[in-house]
Amino acid sequence: MAIRNRKDLGAAVRRARRAKKLSQTDLARMASVRQPLISALENGTTSVTIDTLLKVLAPLALDLDLSPRRSASFDPTEY
Hints:
0% strand, 4 helices, elongated, 434 Repressor (Amino-terminal Domain), mainly alpha
């Protein structure tokens, strides 16, 4: 799944959390962050540091993986 913006990232985190049957509070506790951050991340309304993102992804058994785009075009409206 290509993640191109905060909304895509939030949707991916939400899907993974729900697949593991975790509440936002459970995930926040496991990642050592606050529940409102998980909510904002899932809603695509906040930016987080890479360190924080990695802390949230770890309990979900997700890795951050960078790969080349299939298309070389850049559309700044995607962000």
